[in-house]
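Input chain follows. Return structure tokens only.
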Amino acid sequence: MKTQAKVFIVLTRSPTLLSRLVRRVTRAKYTHAALALDEGLEYMFSFGRRRASNPFVGCFKRESLNDDIYGACAELPGVVAEIPVTPAQYAEICGIIESFLLNHHNYSYNTLGLIRNLARVPAENDKRFFCSEFVYYVLNESGVCDFGMLREGIRPEMLLKVNGRIAFEGDLILLRNKRAPQAGSRRFLKFYQ
């Protein structure tokens, strides 16, 4: 019997100005997407603002429910979708993220792409990503899903169409420090010690 691995799509809506603007334009329940390699959401990655105080400078980053943006939230509406993947797909996902980690200086936040997404006029750029575009790129490149569209056209809630189950929906603040990392995610410990 083949052992199943899991990754987690994490969708959130923070109280930031950019999040409120995206919500107003899209009328979506969630405005940000990240991809976690473990159930404890300790190894969660996305493209987002570099610092909480500056919404205009973004980058590829490891995110945490305790970081300067999420940590300041009194409430953080969100959903965690558990996505079953094969061990080969999990290894591919880890490899893609490892490549982003090692080459993070080559990538930047796709501000123009976000604006084009909101206007429903997508176009791809190999070195620029916004949050949902990145999550879809990793899942698509690893063979987990294919929506048959440009990655820049993906919005956070579209990621809930990926085959999986809702593991949690509600205030993500309740999940802070509640879970332990999966054994499979330990290979990333070397990057952060």
